[in-house]
Amino acid sequence: VEDFLDEWGVLDLMECSPPHITKFAKVFLNGMWIGQHEKPAELRETLLFLRRRKDIDSEVSIQQDLKNAEIKISTDSGRCTRPLYIVDYKKQKVLINGNHVEHIKAGRWEWGDLRRNG
Description:
The protein has about 120 residues and is α+β, with helices and mostly antiparallel strands. It is built from five helices and seven strands; from the N terminus they run αβαββαββββαα. It is elongated, with a radius of gyration of 17 Å.
């Protein structure tokens, strides 16, 4: 995940100047402040897309804190995880629907299928 963050424009703290710190969002990895990013919503969406595509482990937690202008990413072991519904962030609508439930009930889909399709 750390290599990916470098590729997607997260500025290392050593590269940040005072204007970066006041205008950019802080990025935390496993509780450690690792850098700043100019467009945190785009970073969050990209991370979520990559997680759904399995380029990033499905157990990686990605959180955007709008109030404090922070992105928090957790990859450490020992965290409790739970299944969550995927929500369209802009529409604020759950993506799972009746067809998905029917596929599960009929045994045509398993957990991974549901995660990939909504």
